[in-house]
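Sample A.
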Amino acid sequence: MVGLYRYKANNRSIYFNFRFNIAQHSGDILLINLLIKYFNCGKVHLLSNTNRCNFYLQYLNNIYNIIIPHLDKYPLNNNKQLDYADFKITANLFKSDGIKNTEMIKKIIYYMNSRRE
């Protein structure tokens, strides 16, 4: 997931929030906790009001150095692969020069996930 945010004090300033997230039923909390051990990073959040748990990480270096290489080596065999491809493109654009690539990143993230045709 890539989020686009504007600073409240200055609507012209924007920033991107890169977040890798896996959601499961809370009954799978043991499995989700194993992801921390496997990737050696991340956090687990248990959402008791929705019976859901999430493995997530937001540290960009872990996304670049751990998650992207892992998903390149073990591609997803479903429609989430398209979202991952866009996620990777936006991460690389941001890494190369996020400020200059802002408009391109905004266009890509607009069509990710539920807005994909």
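Sample B.
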Amino acid sequence: MRYGVIADVHANLHALDAALEFLSGQRIDEYLCAGDLVGYGPLPSESVRRVLALPGRCVAGNHDLIVLGRLSDERCVAAARASLRWTRAALDDDAQGALAQLPIGARAGDVVLRHGSVSDPQEYVISERQALACLDELERAEPGARILILGHTHRPMAVGRRRARLLRRATGTVELADDEPVVLNPGAVGQSRSRDPRARVMVLDTAARTASFHAVAYDEAACRRALAERGLPQDSCHIPRSRWSEVAGALARRVSRA
């Protein structure tokens, strides 16, 4: 199977359409979405309908659950809380009903789909140590599963149990060993948290045992205009990190590996 894998759409329909147009040329059999269809962005109902019309599986993210009243927003930053209040009012009944049907987790063969971690949609799995702990939990919760797909961090990731970090850059292709469980995160479609605003997607080929990470350009100006028209901050769908933040993050990852 060739899966088109997306996560963290965050109501950015402009980025989502560009991502799906790219994936339509990748011989995709089914789609996997690791949640957070809404929050931050200007077009929540349209984004929900677009994702849920795709063949495949989708799980609920923490923003989806907060909008539905199933999680508290106490762990969110102020900008997220404000956007979620707006989203609750803007989301139409059909889209809200569709969100309400999303499961917390899904499985396709040996591939398991979650948002934050295996058991907590609000947990950030950033370090290799956290990823390996997720693989331990995966073994207990989903016997026989070999691939765990997560979202939530907005950062591309590939970590194998034996070889540790497999993806050294934000894009590229990694080889997946048959006998090695792995954690994969495609990065965010709709809200970049790096200096690069492009939408992130992944193509998972379970027959070839590869995961390919891609960055797709989209009409950011149109997204900012849509945000402004709705009274939302124009940087809601792109929160660029400073160079110092990126350096500090790289150092933290090295310490975690050590």
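B remarks: The mean pLDDT is 94. The chain has one domain: 2-257.
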